[in-house]
């Protein structure tokens, strides 16, 4: 069971209201954890592409994701936006059973009619806890998108122990693509079976199976610290899958195993852009040089800032270390530090 919280567009543009929302999320996540719940959705009104830049989106999402992550890391927060052509979260998220926010009784009735037709559990509208002080939702400009959009783009990383940086990277991909997002996920490099999962209109199927046997360690993961706590590729892929489907079920998402830094960003001729962090943006020049040798066009680089949540950075390495501490001591792992480079 999961809770869906909806707030108006005023919270997207109103910088002064963000601290209130962060405190609210931190407290709500603690309550969810105490009740044994592990999922929390936050739907922000309006399409951010019409009002803020990609960098501003990262600045908005970082503290929102960190609020529950730092106080109740077991609660998985997913921040959603209203996007044209995508049905409302309350109608399409099967695991949501309760809603909190600026819903009217007639809205809930209409939503539940749709959910019932899909054989989903009807939503219960909660009246507490009380949301931060409400204001009149802002009317976001109905102008053309301020961001450059690409039909097919790619992004990549280990996506091990998914953290706020990963989520921001995937969210940017979801809002920058119009058709396909190709997610490269590193593999261990030992003998393994590769498979690609494709999501189209929310339906996931296994489209191809390629059997490869590697006799050398994976360059991306061979030197990872605390590698014994690294999640299996299939687990990481399915976690990314669930998150991606919640963000944009209307897109085609591809989970692609990679064993080299370049991966399918070099081999796929149809790609138009690549999303990278500030720390990994230097690799784009080499990728485009390799694409040119294959006769492929260059990729446009969409660079997101290093996601910072305080004086330190969090990475998958930090989370693997904390996971091992918890396993070996038999006690809950310590609270995680602040987030880092999303590709790590």
Relevant terms:
alpha/beta; nucleotidyltransferase activity; seven-stranded mixed β-sheet; 344 residues; nucleotidyltransferase; Rossmann fold; Rossmann-like_a/b/a_fold; five-stranded parallel β-sheet; Pantetheine-phosphate adenylyltransferase; transferase; 23% strand
Overall geometry: globular
- Please name the CATH topology of the largest domain: Rossmann fold
The major beta sheet can be summarized as: 7 strands, mixed
Distance N to C terminus: 30 Å
Average pLDDT value?
Answer: 76
- CATH class call of the largest domain: Alpha Beta
Number of helices, where a helix is a run of at least 4 consecutive DSSP H or I residues: 10
The residue ranges in which pLDDT falls below 50 over 5 or more consecutive positions are 135-141, 189-222, 308-312, 316-341
Number of domains: 2
Q: Considering the protein shown, what is the CATH homologous superfamily of the largest domain?
A: HUPs
Using only CA atoms, what is the Rg?
20 Å
Amount of helix: 25-40%
* Named CATH architecture of the largest domain: 3-Layer(aba) Sandwich
Number of DSSP strand runs: 12
Give me the side-by-side strand order of the main sheet: 9-8-10-7-6-11-12
Element-level helix/strand string: EHHEHEHEHEEHEEEHEHEHEH
The fraction of residues in strands falls at: 15-25%
Structural class: alpha/beta
């Amino acid at each position: 069971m999961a809770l869906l919280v909806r707030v108006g567009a005023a919270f997207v543009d109103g910088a002064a209201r963000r601290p209130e929302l962060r405190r609210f999320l931190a407290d709500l996540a603690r309550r969810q954890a105490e009740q044994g719940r592990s999922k929390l959705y936050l739907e922000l009104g309006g399409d951010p592409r019409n009002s803020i830049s990609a960098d501003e989106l990262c600045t908005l999402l970082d503290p929102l994701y960190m609020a529950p992550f730092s106080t109740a890391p077991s609660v998985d927060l997913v921040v959603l936006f209203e996007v044209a052509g995508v049905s409302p979260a309350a109608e399409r998220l099967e695991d949501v059973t309760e809603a909190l926010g600026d819903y009217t009784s007639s809205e809930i009735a209409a939503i539940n009619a749709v959910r019932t037709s899909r054989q989903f559990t009807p939503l219960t509208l909660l009246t507490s806890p009380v949301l931060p002080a409400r204001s009149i939702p802002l009317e976001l400009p109905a102008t053309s998108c301020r961001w450059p959009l690409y039909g097919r783009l790619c992004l990549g990383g280990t996506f091990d122990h998914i953290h706020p940086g990963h989520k921001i990277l995937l969210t940017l991909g979801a809002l920058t693509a119009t058709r396909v997002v190709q997610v490269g996920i590193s593999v261990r490099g030992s003998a393994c079976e590769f498979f690609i999962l494709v999501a189209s209109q929310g339906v996931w199927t296994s489209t191809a199976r390629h059997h490869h046997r590697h006799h050398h360690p994976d360059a991306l993961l061979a030197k990872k610290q605390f590698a014994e706590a690294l999640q299996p590729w299939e687990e990481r892929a399915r976690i990314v899958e669930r998150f991606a489907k919640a963000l944009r079920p209307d897109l085609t998402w591809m989970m692609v195993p990679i064993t080299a830094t370049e991966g399918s960003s070099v081999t796929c001729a149809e790609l138009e852009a690549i999303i990278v962090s500030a720390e990994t943006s230097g690799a784009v020049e080499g990728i485009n040089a390799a694409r040119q040798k294959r006769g492929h066009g260059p990729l446009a680089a969409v660079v997101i800032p290093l996601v910072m949540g305080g004086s330190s950075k969090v990475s998958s390495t930090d989370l693997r270390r904390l996971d091992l501490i918890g396993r070996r001591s038999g006690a809950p792992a310590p609270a995680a530090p602040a987030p880092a480079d999303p590709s790590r």
